[in-house]
Amino acid sequence: xxxxxxxxxxFFITCAIIFFPxxxxxxxxxxxxxxxxxxxxSLLPFFIVSEILISIGVVRFIGVFLEPLMRPVFKVPGAGGxxxxxxxxxxxxxxxxxxxxxxxxxQISRHEAERLVSFSNSSNPLFIFGAVSIGFFQDxxxxxxxxxxxxxxxxxxGLTMRFWGKDEKKLQKETVHSKPSFKKAFQLxxxxxxxxxxxxxxxxxxxxxxxxxxxxxxxxxxxxxSVLNQIxxxxxxxxxxxxxxxxxxxxxxxxxxxxxxxxxxLFEITLGxxxxxxxxxxxxxxxxxxxxxxAFSGFSVQAQVASILAETxxxxxxxxxxxxxxxxxxxxxxxxxxxxxxxxxxxxxxxxAPAFIFEKTPSFLTEYWLLLSKVGPVITICTLIVxxxxxxxxxxxxxGT
Length: 401
Known about the structure:
By secondary structure, the chain is mainly alpha-helical. It contains 18 helices and no strands. Helix 3 (58-74) packs across helix 4, helix 4 runs antiparallel to helix 5 (94-104) and helix 6 packs parallel to helix 17 (317-348).
């Protein structure tokens, strides 16, 4: 049955691309544009730096001090605090990439990795404030509400997933009851550095190669799901699904005009958020749907995460259910916080609600988003050239020996 299902779906997609080449091409260009201009240049520095920090043991050093917080609250090692912070700063799918890396280094167990990856994947602030709030909704006042709801959803997922899997009692006793110290942290970092006998140049080259390879896979998924989303819209599958979704929305008193944007957002968050902002509905309902879309992260991002986790023994199923939970938590948070974080702040500031409470933050994020859109392609192509050169010289050295 699974083989027949796979064959049918792939055959359907292939026929659709053949019958609608123009629409498929435009969708591919849209996905490539997003990856080329934004995703690649924004994620690359985080991936490279994180790879090096893990290799030289800095993450283990940080983990010693974060252990008293992360272990009792989320039942993950202290190193999970670093992964969580990097996931928030850089966005999807950095949390999954770093979690898989820690698992490959045997720094966390499988159950700990499944807990960690469930709440360390989130949208970065730049996308929420720059693209969604300012770019799609043309309303910088929404940034704070969407961000707080999104990251609160992450926290609630982490607190819920702490009950997932078996406890590693022996390890837990050793870590929880031991007080963090600088001497112990430095000793662990030094031991890991000694285990990794690669020189700094080799580590840097490996970090670039691994990061670029991961980003190339991510780019392929972005383009694929952009085309798939367009095809589903053309063949009216989206309309049929929207009819079913509309009946569910009626039960919870959400406008049915948001059913199509919601369905699109299940596949790709960028298109779903954009269509939601353009829908004819009250702002409250659009914020609730957008919060769910950002938290669910779309099948496109989930496919990226699945490909990363496939290199380890970390199961994808807990991550998928965590995305549904975060969608619910984030939507409820947006509903509860809509008045204090949007309506009240809007009225107090006479139509202006500061995004981070700091006055200059919205303009900074806007300028950074515009700058990234301009210089992103240059960063991407220069990095790909470096990647090709490193790969070429390593192949030549291998053939020479």
